[in-house]
Design a protein that fits this description.
- The complex is a heterodimer of chains A (265) and B (228).
- With 265 residues, chain A is an all-alpha fold.
- Chain A is 82% helix and 0% strand.
- Chain A is built from twelve helices and no strands.
- In chain A, helix 5 (97-108) crosses helix 6 (112-136), helix 6 crosses helix 8 (153-164) and helix 6 packs antiparallel against helix 9.
- By secondary structure, chain B is α/β, with parallel strands linked by helices.
- In chain B, the strands form two sheets. Chain B has a six-stranded mixed beta sheet with strand order 5-6-7-3-8-9, with helices on both faces. Chain B has a three-stranded antiparallel beta sheet with strand order 2-1-4, with helices on one face.
- In chain B, helix 6 links the parallel strand 6 and strand 7.
- The radius of gyration of chain B is 18 Å and the shape is globular.
- The chains are: A mainly alpha (265), B alpha/beta (228).
- Chains A and B meet through helix 7, helix 8, helix 11 and helix 12 of A and strand 5, helix 2, helix 3 and helix 4 of B.
Chain lengths: 265, 228
């Protein structure tokens, strides 16, 4: 926390230094003070647009994560489908999201839909990749446990591979959460009547550099907050899995028959 | 259906790792042999686990078996109790907490239910693995160098616990350690050149052996390994 604040302070100082030494006009690089003033002056406006973006980001993050986890599980449950689907998914990521955004706007209109869709597209892939890789990398010796138990595939996937691979999900979600606001803002640039991305375009068109930078600061803050939130949530999920795997200890231990015999002799 | 036997041919890259028939009786059967000779492969085929080699033949084994490997295979995200019950969970059977506690008690880890594996010593971890195998109440157990990673003193303790708890079962254990074989084996087999050969051991119990007799027996095991 303190280290973060120190870094932020150092960044602001560098910024101020650049303004002084660079002699750049205010509409190119406004000083931090005027950006801060814009944050205060336009607080209501920023909050209003920020809330829209936050909504898009959260919806996209939740749906994208669910899609990523769902796909990772499905592809592990049906290896035959995986051989077909995985190359398609990889190819889908080769299409730049900037190209897709106008198409999505065309299909889904100017509302939340296309922004959420772009966010989902950016989020699901790192989540899927992180989780499925980690599920692939569960050591073969550990999988022996499922073989000894003669576990059906779905039990092996759900009770052995998935919990073992949760750190991979966490890593994927960290990347996904960092991309999420980018997705929402790109969606807003293409066509929107609300949101921080829209506000930035408007402010730019009106040469309100300080307001544009204020929106930018808010996007950065949003990104950091969302990343933190996602990390916390997946931490809770891991805790939950641990708990559900726990067999409550019992104080009145009764010995199974053959152990009783074994201990008596 | 407690029979445990393997007949057929296990081959890797054209060479026979094993061919013939072997029937495992009640008690401890130890399998020794040089590294890479195929002991683990033989054990995995017996356990029905996948191997790199090809196997043609027949294995008779009961529906439930116990398995211990050199690594304890404890899942770091589960408690000790969760780990002991993991096979039941994977098999879709209801885990009885009382039975988990009883198995932990039997291996000398009473009250360890809520501990996480990373708080345990190597010996304790392997005891949990033993408790996990006991949970199956299986008539046959297959052990792949389960005590190899333990220090000598701990190894002796865990060996003794395992010996007490697995009395009356069919246990097949791969080992590199002649003294372990001498301590535990009712029957000792050496795998070499695709065949298993019996090595004669002094009668059990061997705790009464003199130093001279023990040294002779160990020497005979080593010679059998050399000759193979």
């Amino acid at each position: 926390m303190i280290r973060g604040l120190t870094l932020a302070a150092a960044f602001v100082a560098l910024w101020q230094l650049a303004v002084w030494l660079g002699g750049l006009p205010r509409f190119v690089l406004p000083p931090p003070v005027s950006v801060f003033a814009a944050l205060v002056d336009h607080a209501a406006l920023l909050a209003d647009h920020g809330f829209t973006t936050l909504l898009e980001v959260m919806a996209g993050l939740v749906l994208g994560t669910a899609l990523g986890i769902g796909l990772a599980l499905a592809l592990h449950l049906w290896p035959a489908a995986r051989r077909v689907v995985e190359p398609v998914l990889v190819a889908s990521q080769a299409v730049p999201v900037f190209v897709l955004a106008p198409v999505l706007t065309l299909w889904l209109g100017y509302g939340l839909g296309p922004k959420v869709a772009v966010t989902v597209l950016l989020v699901f892939f790192p989540v899927l990749g992180g989780l499925i890789d980690a599920m692939d990398r569960v050591p073969d010796t550990v999988l022996d446990l499922a073989r000894i138990a003669r576990a059906p595939r779905w039990r092996e996937v759900l009770f052995l591979r998935l919990p073992t691979a949760l750190p991979g999900l966490r890593a994927g979600l960290r990347i996904g959460a960092t991309f999420a606001p980018t997705g929402a803002v790109i969606g807003e640039w293409v066509g929107a009547s609300k949101g921080l991305g829209y506000l930035m375009l408007m402010a730019n068109a009106r040469s309100q550099a300080d307001l544009m930078f204020a929106a930018l600061v808010l996007v950065i803050a949003l990104t950091l907050a969302v990343r933190r939130l996602a990390d916390w949530a997946v931490g809770r999920l891991i805790g939950l899995v641990h708990f559900s795997g726990t067999v409550r200890p019992s104080t009145s231990g009764r010995l199974p028959a053959q152990q009783r015999i074994a201990r008596n002799d | 259906m407690n029979a445990l036997s393997l007949s057929g041919r296990i081959a890797l890259a054209g060479a026979d790792l094993f061919s013939g028939e072997v029937v495992f009786a009640e008690g401890w059967t130890c399998v020794m042999g040089a590294s890479g000779v195929g002991k683990t492969t033989l054990l995995r085929v017996l356990a029905g686990l996948p191997v790199a080699a090809t196997f043609q033949g027949h294995v008779a084994r009961p529906g439930r078996i116990g398995w211990m490997a050199q690594a304890d295979l404890l899942l770091p995200h589960l408690t000790v109790a969760g780990n002991v019950g993991v096979i039941d969970r994977l098999a879709g059977r209801l885990t009885q907490p009382d039975k988990v506690s009883a198995c932990l008690d039997a291996v000398g880890l009473a009250g360890f239910e809520a501990r996480m594996p990373d708080t345990l010593s190597g010996g304790q971890r392997q005891r949990v693995a033993l408790a996990r195998a006991l949970m199956q109440e299986a008539p046959c157990l297959m052990l792949d160098e389960p005590f190899a990673a333990l220090d000598p003193a701990t190894r002796r303790q865990v060996q003794t616990t395992a010996q007490d708890l697995l009395r009356g079962k069919r246990v097949v254990m791969v080992t590199h350690d002649p003294s372990e074989a001498l301590r535990l084996a009712d029957r000792l087999l050496v795998l070499a050149g695709g065949a298993l050969r019996d090595v004669t051991l002094p009668a059990k119990p061997r705790s009464g052996l003199s130093a001279q007799e023990a040294a002779t027996a160990l020497g005979q095991i080593l010679l059998a390994m050399e000759a193979a």
